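User: Please predict the structure of the protein below. I'd like the answer in structure-token form so I can feed it into my own downstream comparison script.

Assistant: Understood. Taking the following sequence of 806 residues as input:
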Amino acid sequence: MKKFATIALSMTMILPISAQKEQAHGYPITPVPFTSVKVASGSFWGQRLEASRKVTIPLAFSKCEETGRYTNFSNAAEHLKDPSKVFKVGGLAFDDTDPYKTIEGASYILQTYPDKKLVAYIDSVLEIIASAQEPDGYLYTSRTQNPKEPHEWAGDKRWSMEEDLSHELYNLGHMVEGAIAHYQATGSRKFLDIAIRYADVVCKEVGPNPGQACVVPGHQIAEMALAKLYLLTGDKKYLDEAKFFLDYRGKTTIVHDYSQAHKPVVEQDEAVGHAVRAAYMYAGMADVAALTGDKEYIKAIDAIWDNIVTKKLYITGGIGATSNGEAFGANYELPNMSAYCETCAAIGNVYVNYRLFLLHGDSKYYDVLERTLYNGLISGVSLKGDGFFYPNPLESMGQHQRQAWFGCACCPSNICRFIPSLPGYIYAVKNRNVYINLFLSNKSILSVAGKKVGLTQTTEYPWNGDITVSVDQNTAGQFAMKIRIPGWVRNQVLPSNLYKYSDNKRLDYSVTVNGQTVVAKVTNDGYYTIDRKWKKGDKIQIHFDMEPRTVRANNKVEADRGMVSIERGPLVYCAEHPDNDFDIMATLINQNPQFRIGKGEIAGTPIQTLITDAQTLNLNKSGKLETQDQTLTLIPYYAWCHRGSGKMRVWLPQDLNATSPSQPVTLASESKVTSSCEVPAISSINDRLIPKDENDRSVPYTHWWPKKDCTEWLAYEFPQESLVQSATVYWYDDGPWGGCRVPQSWRILYQNAQGLWQPVTGVTDYPTDKGTACTVNFNPVKTKALRLEVTLPTDNATGLFEWSVR
């Protein structure tokens, strides 16, 4: 990477002493920072951190280089030096955040894996970033590269498009988050001073007072970042600015539920709109509630959390039901194949629950956090750290696959920063109480009543429920260890009735100190509390029974009626095509299933499988239903799609009315599919799955997006020459949010004996109704191939669910 001259920073503010110690202006419960915890290598999470260090973070930095992220900053610096130099601004208005997020992840990883070369590389990147900062501290390359012709989303002046698309405050949020992590990990103020200067510009220029831009973030995150900056510096203006962003939501020009601006935040009680924006805002609300004690904020965020956990949370801990707006759906709307469950939204869900724990101190928030963490979050990145999901569906016909990167790289860079931050989520302290919230092998130094306590935790969790916590040192005297007893141990899937265990099992747990049983019980907050004077060498041994469990959803969740999901400990399992040589979509789980634990390996990483007897239902060629006994193998959900795209399912039918027998083969299903260009999920057009209506997203589809105003085609090459006389198409249209509409026109062609394509004859009409059978009958032709030719709309693409022929 090229070296750039460092621009000297005039900002030399000294952080208050309170930033180094437990703060009087902090949360009711004090987090134990990531700098105090070191995760053991070779463990479940050690492997994840290692993959982040060796693969994900270097990949993210390389993508910043390859895709011009750094160039944006250097271009801005060139313009600042010589205003006659301007540059064409492309990309996305939030591309600046990818370096910020990657630096944040790299900073977290330095705690576990010190690396002088990585520190030097980060410093070189910060030189580039600093060079792009305007004299007053404003830093937004989408404008600074070319102030007269900025990014099309930027607006003609600062903040003018903030509530729509500019992302100026979103960029600030990720900058502050990254800068604080870098400062905490390295002690260097290099990034922190850049972020403080930009934050000060925002506090000066954005607000409710005369002369200020009275706008709120179009995409939230600045709220939680400014709260964090307040915690670090003790400067209340940052918390006040965060509260302004929340207080004025729904009171400015942006008023709609997509960005949670449909009404004031303290009047909201339902999770709506874009799920990532929502989760970041709810985290900011929880920050303000916890840091100010504002009762209206506490009431509102508690009501929103309750709505999510009782009506809008997937069994995997994912949030965001629909691709339309990447948004929450209606209450109990939790489709599986079309589940959006964006990786960023899962990360946001962790942020919300973590902050609510710091506010209320109840283990139920960690029950949700843990479910999200082990399932819907880490599913977003491959075990090797080099393949990513944007959505994380709970069912697939093979149309989903991990990607090496995305043009809109928010999810890869977000997972890049989150996983290395995990050490900061394990412990917390309040007065003389030490909370043990997550179970993973680590060494830590905690501050209890201002004194040092050293702990070592060893475990093979989540594969078994045995955990040992050893006291390595204690200068704090007597204090209480509060051990979270997970909800799954206490027969509670979630702290709500959205899901319930259906197998009538009762798991147990035990806790001993130095081999002796401790007389204690789980209190209402979900913790097993041991209060004593601890000494060096004391050992707490925790055992949780860990058995496979079946789960049923609330009957109001239409997508899961008659089905069960299977989990063991904190892990949700799924059936996937490589492990089962039959159609898993036609599987019927036994009424009283018995499970065996097996061992396997995916992407070079050991896993535990679950094995059970099941049946498949099939319709033979005559239409008669047949059953066949099968051995069904399940893998942890987070590990799916490492062995090629194919069928996957989390929820499996247990009731006959929920089954979908395998359909008999058809001429289309046995044909080879070709196309005029590469399209996603091409196999969906002959998978024999028919949508219920135009809004059905439970069946896969293909499309030509982002192509438009052109002619494209799909073709079937039949197994042998066949007589055909009819074709039916089910058109996919995702308006008004998406980019697909029904076609301008279409037609069917056949391949004649000379290999030439000829239109079929005798057609009276080519219908274009969306989501329903659009059938054409034509004069019979004997052919080896049939082509579907589609003229796309002028301003949109076209897609289709299914194309059948007779």
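That's the full token string. The CA atoms of residues 602 and 736 lie 40 Å apart.
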